[in-house]
Amino acid sequence: MADLFQISRESKTLEIEETSREGFPFRLVVTLRKLGVVTMLDYFISPEDAEGITKALSKTGAAAE
């Protein structure tokens, strides 16, 4: 899987990866590191999901201006 985006803040990492999974070309991975425990949560995203996320984030950016 190829990384498309990654951001890390303190003990948290958010990654968006490209996948070859049919119907779900994106994978969102949230990694939490606390007290020596690592928890990784992943979610496969469809193109429709990605479009919805893009719209939601665009609205947030426009509202801040």
What can be said about this structure in brief?
The chain is of the alpha+beta class and 65 residues long. The chain has one helix at residues 47-64; strands spanning 2-9, 12-18, 26-34, 37-45. The longest helix has 18 residues, at 47-64.
Provide structural commentary.
The protein is an alpha+beta fold. It has one domain: Nuclear Transport Factor 2, Chain: A. It is built from one helix and four strands, in the order ββββα. The chain has a four-stranded antiparallel sheet with strand order 1-2-3-4. A hairpin with a 7-residue loop joins β2 and β3. The mean pLDDT is 91.
| Mean pLDDT metric | 91
Give start-end ranges of low-pLDDT stretches.
Answer: none
Number of domains: 1
Strand content: over 45%
Helix content: 25-40%
Number of helices: 1
Write down the secondary-structure element order. EEEEH
Termini separation (Å)?
Answer: 35 Å
Give the structural class.
alpha+beta
Per CATH, what is the topology? Nuclear Transport Factor 2, Chain: A
Write the layout of secondary structure elements.
Blueprint: E1 2-9, E2 12-18, E3 26-34, E4 37-45, H1 47-64
Antiparallel strand pairs: 1-2, 2-3, 3-4
